[in-house]
Amino acid sequence: MRNLKEYMDYTNSVNVEYAFNVYKNDLEADRSYLRDDHMLFTYMFLNLLSLYLHFQILNMIDGKYSVRDVLLILSGIRMYRMEKGEIMSEIPKKAKDLVADLNIDLDILRKKD
Fold first, then answer.
1. 34, 90, 98, 102: which could form a disulfide with 39 (CB 3.0–4.6 Å)?
2. Which residues pair with residue 68 across a beta bridge?
């Protein structure tokens, strides 16, 4: 029973270290130059939300891509809003494949009335 607890403590510490690594390197949230408490709390909340979304994406991709790669590939999809409606840009092949692999519904990009 003791070995199981040590193993669980070890795996939890690895997860915490990974989260700090993401927070520091991917989100670049290790330093803020904010002097107002309200701005600092907002900054920390947005970084926590970003970390949560990072892990949501990580759980979806199953090691095929990195989270940075997913965001970079999906950044090629653009929505243009015009007076009469919205137009989606042509979706690059890599983005189409990724959207299909992850079962992402692109209709979430469209403005709801």
1. 34
2. none
In this predicted structure, what is the pLDDT of residue 32? 72
Q: Mind listing the pLDDT tens digit for each residue in 62-80?
A: 778 888 888 888 888 888 8
Separation CA 39–CA 47 (nearest Å): 12
Structure-token pair, residue 80: 């243009």
Rounded CA gap, 65 and 99, in Å?
A: 13
Dump strand ranges (E) for 2-106: 79-82, 85-88
Report yes or no: 69 and 95 within 8 Å, Cβ to Cβ: no
Q: How many CA atoms lie within 13 A of 104 on its CB side?
A: 18
